Amino acid sequence: MKKLENYSEDIYKCSKCGICLAACPVYEETGNEATLSRGFFTLLHGALNNKIPLKKLAKYLDYCTTCKACFDFCPSGISAEEIILAARSYFYEHGDISAIKKSIVKAFNSNMILKGLGFSAFIYRALQGPFWFDQLGGLSSQFNLISNIVNSQTQEYIKYKKLSPVGDKKEINAVYFPGCINNYFNASVKNATVMVCEKNGIDLDISPNFACCGIPARGIGDMQSFISLAKHNIGQIDLEQIDYLITDCATCGMVWDIYPEYLEGEYKEKALLLAQKNMNIYKFLVQFDIFLPDNVEDNKIVTYHDPCHLKRSQKVDKEPRKFLSLLPGIKFEEMKNADRCCGASGLYFLSKPGISQSISKRKAENILNTKANIVTTSCPSCKIGLSQGLSLCNRKMPVYQPVELLANIYFNKMN
Amino acid sequence: MTISNSISIDKVISELKLVLDKKNNILTEYEERFCYAYDATAIGEKLYLPDVVVLPENTEQVAQIMKIANKYKIPVITRGAGTNLCGGCIPLKSGIVLHTSKLNKIISIDKDNLTCVAEAGVVVEKLQQEVEKLGLFYPPDPSNLKVSTIGGSVALSSSGPRCFKYGGTKDYVLGLEVVTAKGKIINIGGNTVKNVTGYNLSQLFVGSEGTLGIVTRVTLKLIPLPESKQVLLVFFDSIDDAATAVTDIISHKITPSTLDLMDQKTMDTVEQFHPTGLPTHYDAALVIEIDGIADTIFVQAKQIEEICYKNNAKDVRIAKDKKEADEIWFARRSAFGAVARMKPNVITEDAVVPRNKIPQMVKAIRKTADKYNLNVCTMGHAGDGNLHPNFSLDLRDHEEHERLEKAIEELFDAAIELGGTLSGEHGIGMSKAKFMNKVASNEVLEYMKLIKNSFDPDDILNPGKILIK
Lengths: 415, 469
Prior knowledge:
The structure holds two protein chains of two kinds.
Chain A lengths: L7 H6 L6 H4 L1 H6 L6 H12 L9 H4 L7 H5 L6 H14 L5 H11 L1 H16 L2 H8 L4 H14 L19 E4 L1 H7 L2 H12 L4 E2 L9 H6 L2 H13 L8 E4 L2 H13 L2 H13 E3 H5 L14 E5 L3 H7 L3 H9 L3 E3 L15 H4 L1 H17 L4 E3 L3 H13 L6 E2 L1 H13 L1
Parallel strand pairs in A: 1-2, 1-3, 3-4, 5-6, 5-7, 7-8
Helix pairs in contact in A: 9-12, 10-11, 11-23, 13-24, 16-17, 16-19, 22-23
Chain B lengths: L5 H14 L6 E2 L2 H6 L16 E3 L4 H14 L3 E4 L16 E4 L6 E5 L4 E5 L4 H10 L2 E2 L12 H7 L6 H4 L6 E7 L5 E5 L11 H5 L8 E8 L1 E2 L3 E9 L2 H13 L6 E6 H10 L10 E9 L1 H17 L2 E6 L3 H21 L2 E4 L9 H14 L3 E7 L4 E8 L4 H20 L18 H4 L2 H14 L14
Parallel strand pairs in B: 2-4, 3-4
Antiparallel strand pairs in B: 1-2, 5-6, 6-10, 7-11, 8-9, 8-10, 12-14, 12-15, 13-14, 13-17, 16-18, 17-18
């Protein structure tokens, strides 16, 4: 793992050409140079040369959603995300991270706390919470926003049902890493993923006792917790028994790719092997001749939002679109700037609500311009951003994972 | 001119706060101001910190800000995207940086009269996309058009590859809304292509680098969007052949929209960092774009191919589809980025010479780079005689930096000797101000100073740029 000091040459390399101004969703809202990569590099260079105290930069670097869009454009090829995370790690070590953030992140580090939170989500659903909260949302726009965000995480569209496979069982050892949202808050995507795989003759191994992938800890710079979660998760997998490691959460998938950078020795070797086997669900599914029922009487327009951690980190963007375009009764419609950040970015929507909401609103306008009935994405955090934006445009629209749509088709065709 | 005592700065800031009602539109923290001490010009470790940064949202606010600045005689430096390469936005004498990031509305597009009105902070590419939706065209294409602003284009009279056929920013400005040094809002020029009513003040502001007033709104001329385009990539064993081919194409009454040049070192560097299959053994390549009616450009492409072979071209590639065209442009546009990856800093020069002097100028660049042991990749706009030698170096190496300074001065002398001048499209700013006397006589400089003095008697508008007191 590289420390901030190790990036000093990369930081110095910034030619200040300003191309990142076009890429940065945050700058679009703030118009302030201290909130985007060129400014960050200027500041960090100043700090590393003792012109500014480094700790003073924490509040500026917090503006970054780490969407990596600027990296695609940067002529000098500098990764702002890596450098900002290295800086956050420094801030964490020096006690410059807020207590509130730390405590939220702590929850993700402990399966016990997650289970507790998950249980409350269960009770909430059992008491018809999404319905009542939705009704109450009419009281004020602020309330409506909160209810939409909460419901985006708790509404369970797909209930698990064992489906009989079409054709022969495939001889594939695929371990499924569901991630915290699937495990504790709302198993809808997990149910859909398992059902779609089962229908196509692939049994996913869902037995390992995984913990959080560690991204919340990494996001605030708590690398020690991140590394211990990495070791725990890697320890759950038997290397002899795995051809694929499947994720449906964009972030969890990215994290399996980067574990090796943070580990050493035996763990690093194992992590490297697993990174090769790590595959997003859509990339995995489109390799096969997926079973598609005919005479589906539906006529829905569906659009897709690229999660940053899927397109930019894992280079998976064609596959979800291909998957969607295969689905019967669905017309895929591309939105403008589909790969621009949704504004949610982990805890960003809580720490910078104003900017986050403006970014989400632009996203929602692009969604609405497609005239879609359904918007899909492949990341629980993006679901928050999309729901937030739609809510701010006073519109309701279901936010699904593409795999939920197919599970729903299978489910309906059974009856 | 700088206010040295902090009491009056505090007063300025408190008055500015009354004008800028939102607290996010006034930046006073040291760290924020630090980000505005730079633009895209490589100035090394020097630090010119502004006292305060303001982000006005409308012309009225700009006028109020200017009134405050005038009252306290504090400098105002207008900044668009801060992408210029002449130190144009650097607050040499501190003061207020006026960032136009929130003056970013397109006010109107007039399809019948082929004009549009945009606020200064509108991004060039955004404007182009909007007018193209209506079948209209705003041709000036500075290389940073994804971020650079209309206001910045006017301030520096920017242009780009398409300038050969279509001209630069100066050829599209019809009228301007300007805030004067005293804080008055004036409208100059108009919204008609023909307009002979007294002094042509709009053109005086084009290229004035924020030293005469603050441009807040621009009325631009548009033209109909060409139906289609075609790109050719042509390789030569010698830069002389490339240059004669350019002259020959033009003498055949063909006006390509672009006649861009890359030298061998540029292609080699592009291939190192962004491989697209460019051959690296040719001395020079031309990127030629033609546009117009589909049938005509098909014929013209064939004609250009023939002319190039007649002038000893070694290979002519005509893009078969949009993908191939994009690949050719990608290679050309990656050139700066590729140079930027060789060493930490890049200094891009901008000398311009009469078109037929290109081979001599390229040779002068190579000779000078060899003499001072510098790394240089030369690219540019062959049709305009505008060359961009890109020097990659590490400014922390002071000895290397000194060699570069000497080389640059020699290059300017070479360009002037060939009948050219200091800058084709990047401007003078702080970087070239000291060389102005190489191209302008004392009398000319006196007239320039008279103009500056009558618009800005207290020297508060971007002081220290273009003219040295």
